[in-house]
Amino acid sequence: MPDSLIHSKTLRWFIKNLKLPLPLPPVLQRSNKPWEVELLAGYKVKTNGGISLAAMLQVAGATTIEGNELVDALVYELDGPQTVAKLDQLHAFFNKNLGKVKWNGRIVIIQRQHPHTAEAAAAHRAVDGIIRSVAKEVGRKGITANRIVHEGAWEDMQHRIEGPLRFLLSRYAAFIDGQTIWLDSQVRAPQHSPLAKPLKGKTALVTGAARGIGAAIAKSLAREGAKVIVVDRPQEADIARDLVSEIHGVLLLQDISSIEAPKALADFLTQNHYTLDILVHNAGITRDKTLAKMDTKYWEQVLNVNLQAIISLNETLLHKLNEGGRVIAMSSISGFAGNFGQANYAATKAGLIGYVAALAPELSSRGITVNALAPGFIETAMTAKMPFMTREGGRRLSNLQQGGLPEDIAEATLFLASPGAVGITGQTLRVCGGNMIGA
Ligand code: NAI
Question: Which residue among 80, 216, 235, 246 sits deepest, i.e. has the most Cβ atoms within 10 Å of its Cβ?
């Protein structure tokens, strides 16, 4: 059965109105407007939090409400808890308010962790189980549930909390579900985290940007003000040129796995007087075979492009990154879960999870964060080639009963590249719709 039929408005109407026992995936609301226009515009939020939380939301266009009306989001602020009994308050809040969240709404728990006892550690971790379960319960309505965890006092952490909070609440985070974002203070916060054109004046380099997820990333970064250097293989020259002219970017045709690539990229930056603020390692390939049948060629190609090239490029490019820089590498949920016939691919994607965690402390003194993204099932040319049942199975594993779009990965990349993501480094953020295989 073709996808067009599954997503046809007429078919959806029949399934709904004839009450056929077929689950319909919710139509997710997304946005590709500039943050300045859209971020939380018109949102009504119910929260147990204080005045500073309300102010934080208000700046992005939201209002907090007290009454019993329907809301776009619930935000629950939690200190600890130090005992299991204290979880009762959380239960009471959600028990009362969950039913009031609109379709495509958002739920975020902001949790301060400071466990002094084993019971406190248990109570803290319990919240992870709660958020993952809530995400599964509300996913059929397109509602997402995520958690932000920090270890400092609210006053010290609020300028690190506001970026992730606004992003998770927004329509740009439609495919992030059941996740925890850990915040710390190892990277110095910028003076200013503007909502209007947050990447204005910044230069970004995106590998594998001619098409698919990379092209979507290039467009999102450009939309928020970045000058984007589009890097892709020479054989992609035509589509790369079209993209470059659309986003007023710059083209660099280069196979990133070639031995000359690090020097070629560095020379290109120097000769054109670019300094670098954002480095997105997106290019990746698959060459699937079970390990017993995988020849050396398949093994080496994937390890070279997906992992070795990134490490080699970084050796040359990281010292060219400006203070406050951002490095983002494209991992995959295969890096957590492994995948049949993908020992080479999963090796590289798991390798990146370890790599960013190890690299983060080395870069933090320069105000630079380094993170990975782990997309789940994303609708691209690659996944369109799968047999229908495998493809539909991949979609249905998510809480939202569908695959993500390249734009979902692009918006998450943009968020990690923004000044407001300063509290996040060394992490891998899953953009998988709550498809928690391998978590
Ligand atoms: P795609 O195949 O549509 O695009 C990849 C781009 O990278 C192409 O433009 C290609 O020419 C470029 N590229 C490949 N090798 C290169 C090299 N040696 N030098 C320069 N450019 C090179 O792939 P897609 O789906 O957009 O994936 C992008 C990234 O996201 C990859 O790292 C992939 O592993 C990852 N990912 C994708 C998922 C999906 O469902 N599509 C899921 C999880 C991760």
Answer: 216
